[in-house]
Amino acid sequence: MVRNNLVPPTDPQYTDARNGELWPRAGSPAIDAGETVDGVTTGVRGDGPDQGAYEYGAPIWSTGCNLAGCESRVRNDGWKAAYSGGR
Description:
The chain is mostly loops. The protein has one domain. The chain has no helices and two strands. A two-stranded antiparallel sheet has the order 1-2. A hairpin with a 4-residue loop joins strand 1 and strand 2 (21-24). The N and C termini lie close together (5 Å). Residues 1-50 are annotated as: Disordered. InterPro entries: Pectin_lyas_fold.
């Protein structure tokens, strides 16, 4: 069952999805569109949690090493996400 997902052809309007920058831009349909989970979705900005890893307007965070020479990002060399019906 598909629940609380942005189903194509909806564009989530992320900053730069091709290069792994998945935080929503102003006007993104992902803003406030996430599901509230008691004890998990805390500290949201706006009327509800945003879909995705980043809350719109919150500081951008990242995991892993941030020392010179060890930064890495997901790069999209032409792959595309597909929707299979969500069942």
